[in-house]
C-alpha cells in the first residue's frame, strides 16, 4: 500500500519521517519530493483558457450607468442632446471605473494575486503494508500533513 501526503517544509515533516522510521517503516520505503513554487507573477488580464475570477469591468459598468444617466439629464440643456451626452457619459464612466479597478488590482492587491494560503512544498510517499496503513496515516495527520491519500497496490 502507498500513502501520499503533502507537507509544508517545516520541522513537522522531519519529525513525521523519524516517527515513521521508529515504527518500523524502512528508510528506503519513504520518498520525499520537494516542489518548486511559482516564480512568475500572476497575470492581471484573463485569457480564453484561464480566469482568476476577478472582473475588471464591474466598477466600470456601474459608473457607466451612473454617468450616462447624469449625461442624459444634462444633455437636455446642451446642444448635442441627451442621447449623445448619455453615450459620452457612459464612455467616461466606464473608462474611470476600469482605471480604478485596474489600479486596485495592479497596485493594491498585488500580494493577493500571489498564491494564497498554505502551499504544499513537499510530497511524502510511503510504501507500507496494509496493516500499517492506519498507523502511518495517524502519524502523518498528527505531524500536520496538509493532505493524505491511500492507494492500494494490486
From TrEMBL:
TM annotation in the entry: 56-76, 82-103
Superkingdom as given in the UniProt entry: Bacteria
Keywords: Membrane, Transmembrane, Transmembrane helix
UniProt-recorded name of the protein: DUF1269 domain-containing protein
Organism whose genome encodes this protein: Neobacillus novalis
